[in-house]
Automatic annotation (TrEMBL):
UniProt lineage: Bacteria, Bacillati, Actinomycetota, Actinomycetes, Frankiales
Organism, scientific name: Frankia umida
Chain ranges of the Penicillin-binding protein dimerisation domain: 52-234
Gene name tied to this protein: mrdA
Protein known as: Penicillin-binding protein 2
Any GO MF annotation of the entry: serine-type D-Ala-D-Ala carboxypeptidase activity
Domain Penicillin-binding protein transpeptidase: 277-658
Membrane topology designation: Single-pass membrane protein
């Protein structure tokens, strides 16, 4: 053997030895170091899970009345692990079953097949070892036909299952929400953490989504041992399901019914097309949501068992008013004169206005080439801010906003440097909670908008190219040539200097109009909560407590403060007194509606508002709280495409107050207060109503108790007699409206030099 061969043999020996060492090391890792892991994997490989869904908790109103509950349904299911082992793979069994439940056999085959990328519903997306439900709500006779003949229906079972039920139909649907099957993405991201399974139903909207963890409970799991052919050989372990907790709300069924019915009646009276409206009632002392209504609504039952594509399209169709959208917290727009209390706070807190000082309420106010004027060109002469709120004078607040704009440097387009702008109106709006979410315990809340100088410039930089393109190409999709040309001129102005914070829009901000302000009804109600209670902003909350199936209080949701108004108590008191005058003093814009209201017992403070919208009728607003001298409830109503605030929104609010206090009808909130205790849930599932709250505290100036027990009925609409008190002024700015058509590549708001 020569040297060359010796080297080759040596290298071969080294290679063989290396392979043996590597193999030995790998075997040691697999069998010793990672042995436990692979034993667990092997165990899992021969075990299949069958899930028993937990009974979901109920959702109850503040008195314990069920808004969402469970009912039992007779369900027939097919176990494929049994039928697939039959010679014909269960074809004969499915044919016999089809005759019992009056369903084509081909449909049953589709329902029990497994979903894949190629196989779309109807199909089964759960575990292959889970019985597949093929018929729900079957009759007892159909169930017995299966139960009494197991020889004819091997692998088929009939049993009782819990099904989600909404006993109040569409009532409070946006707040309650609905369930849907868990998605693969949710399984991948949260499956282990949340305990999701392939056939889990989870909340995807409303309270069902927000409090899904509390309501869902823990599913039961039966772990089946299977052989290498997938046949069940035994049971490894069984975990029983644990029912979810019940959720008690601040929401009151009676007040909710009154709000929805009053809205629906008013919308019906308007007639024509798909109409919308919203109303919200908040507890002024806690921020609790007592009622929240948005129309059109929908019945959550349509989602039980899976919603059809046709139904979902109808619920999302703008032609139907988008029933899935809640206008209360997911929609926003101009607030009209309901915003004037905010501007009053600016005038008195930041601009030096005094409560006894008089300001000229003239017919018009000219700013540059724009003329702003009161509704119908009315003039009231020199008046106080109290009277300005009572009769809703526009030009006084326009003047304050214009002076503030000038004080900040106007357009700030000349030589600088300029001092940082104070922007009192924008800052006060933000302090009141506008321009950001309230934090309500519901998903999908809108933020609205409060646009200051920096925001206006940022928006212009984003939309400049669109403005310039529209200035050149116009709006060919607009059928009205005059309107199309007006839009084109707006776009041409914005293309050049749309970054400027213009006087017209800044002025209209003070009366709740223009392109710089957009609020939701919930945001407005929350601001009025702070005005009513002396300056504390709360997070609006629907949930009050979570109670276990055994009746134990698991969790309470306490009021959560989110801010304090930068306004003195004296100024807030002045504003509250002025708002009370809106419904009680001569010339008040709300006196016609509340002329027959028992104001001596339950004084109501409020503000009408009428906001203009491009291409549609005015939006009617009414924001209020009661009792005015001891606020407990805030009620805000908004009805788009209708008319003045006094004509439509205020009567709806009045009917809500009638329901709350029992004016001419049983009181939804006896004693004028929410329940003072939680409902009691007994171990057998029955519910004992919440105890009554304390009697209404003293309201009169003498400090004597005036609990509401028997109050004569008040009409729900303003009197029509010749002597009735009618609004002297209604808060409608007469300048150009707010929005331009929204089309691809076009701005979604008018150029900043456009009249608001």
């Amino acid at each position: 053997m020569n040297d060359r061969m010796r080297v080759r043999v040596l290298l071969l020996r080294v290679a063989v030895l290396s392979l043996l060492v590597t193999l030995g090391a790998r075997l040691w890792v697999l069998q010793i170091l990672d042995g436990d892991h692979y034993r667990q994997v092997a165990e899992t490989n021969r075990v299949r899970e069958v899930v028993t869904p937990a009974t979901r908790g109920m959702i109850l109103d503040d008195h314990g009345q069920p808004l969402v509950r469970n009912r039992t349904s007779l369900v027939i299911s097919v176990n494929r692990s049994t039928t697939d082992r039959q010679p014909d793979r269960g074809k004969a069994v499915l044919t016999r079953l089809a005759g019992v439940i009056n369903t084509p056999a081909d449909d049953l085959v589709k329902r029990i097949r497994f979903c894949t990328a190629q196989v779309k519903p109807p199909c089964w997306n759960g575990s292959p070892y889970q019985p597949v439900p093929v018929a729900k709500d079957v009759s007892p006779a159909q169930a017995l036909a299966v139960i009494e003949h197991p020889d004819r229906f091997p692998g088929v079972s009939a049993d009782l299952q819990a099904v989600r039920e909404y006993p109040q139909g569409s009532l409070a649907a946006h707040e309650l929400g609905y369930l849907a099957p868990v998605t693969q993405d949710q399984l991948d991201k949260q499956g282990d953490e949340k305990g999701y399974h392939l056939n889990s139903l989870i909340g995807v909207a409303g309270l069902e989504s927000t409090y899904d963890d509390q309501l869902r409970g823990t599913d039961g799991v039966q772990r089946l041992e299977v052989d290498r052919f997938g046949r069940v050989a035994g049971t490894a372990s069984t975990t029983e399901p644990a029912s979810g907790d019940h959720l008690v709300l601040n929401l009151d069924l009676g007040v909710q019914q009154a709000a929805e019915q009053a809205l629906q009646d008013t919308i019906n009276s308007l007639g024509g097309g798909s109409r919308t409206g919203s109303a919200v009632v908040l507890n002024a002392r806690t921020g609790g949501v007592v009622a929240m209504a948005s129309l059109p609504s929908y019945n959550p039952s349509v989602f039980v068992g899976g919603v059809s594509e046709q139904d979902y399209r109808a619920l999302s169709d703008p032609a139907n008013g988008i029933p899935l959208l809640s206008r209360v917290y997911q929609g926003s727009g101009a607030a009209g004169s309901t915003f004037k209390p905010v501007s009053t706070a600016v005038a008195m807190q930041n601009l030096g206005a005094r409560g006894d000082q008089r300001f000229l309420c003239s017919q018009t106010l000219q700013i540059g080439d724009q003329i702003f004027h009161n509704f119908d060109g009315e003039s009231a002469g020199p008046i106080t801010l109290h009277q300005a709120l009572v009769i809703s004078c526009d030009v006084i607040f326009d003047q304050f906003a214009y002076d503030s704009w000038l004080g900040d440097g106007g357009l700030r387009n000349g030589r600088g440097p300029y001092a940082p702008p104070k922007e009192y109106f924008a800052r006060m709006a933000e302090a009141m909670g506008f321009g950001r979410g309230t934090g309500i315990d519901l998903p999908g809340e809108t933020k609205g908008s409060v646009v200051d100088r920096a925001d206006a410039k940022a928006i212009w930089e984003e939309l400049k190219d669109s403005y310039c393109r529209r200035a050149k190409n116009g709006y060919p999709e607009e059928t009205d040539p005059a309107k199309a040309e007006r839009f084109r001129k707006y776009a041409a102005e914005a293309c050049v200097d749309g970054y400027l914070y213009n006087a017209g829009a800044a002025t209209q901000f003070a009366i709740g109009q223009g392109q710089y302000l957009s609020v939701s009804p919930l945001q407005l109600a929350n601001a009025y909560v702070a005005i009513a209670n002396g300056g504390t902003l709360y997070r609006p909350t629907l949930a009050k407590a979570a109670i276990s199936p055994e009746g134990k209080v698991v969790q309470t949701f306490q009021p959560h403060r989110i801010g304090t108004l930068p306004v003195s108590p004296e100024i807030l008191g002045y504003i509250r007194d002025s708002l009370r005058g809106v419904t009680t003093e001569p010339g008040g814009t709300g006196t016609g509606v509340f002329a027959d209201w028992p104001s001596a017992t339950i004084p109501i403070a409020g503000k009408t508002g009428t906001a203009e919208v491009e291409g549609r009728g005015d939006t009617s607003w009414f924001a209020s709280f009661a009792p005015a001298n001891d606020p407990q409830y805030v009620v805000v109503v908004s009805i788009p495409d209708s008319g003045t605030g006094a004509e439509y929104a205020a009567p709806v609010a009045k009917r809500i107050y009638q329901a709350i206090y029992g004016v001419g009808q049983p009181a939804a909130q006896p004693g004028g207060r929410p329940p003072g205790a939680l409902p009691r849930i007994n171990r057998d599932g029955t519910i004992a109503a919440a105890t009554a709250s304390d009697p209404l505290r003293p309201l009169g100036p003498g400090g004597t108790s005036s609990a509401v027990t028997s109050i004569p009925a008040a009409s729900a609409t303003p009197p029509n007699s010749a002597g009735a008190l009618l609004p002297a002024l209604v808060t409608t700015p007469t300048k150009a409206p707010v929005t331009t058509p929204v089309v691809t590549g076009a701005p979604t708001s008018p150029p900043s030099r456009a009249p608001p």
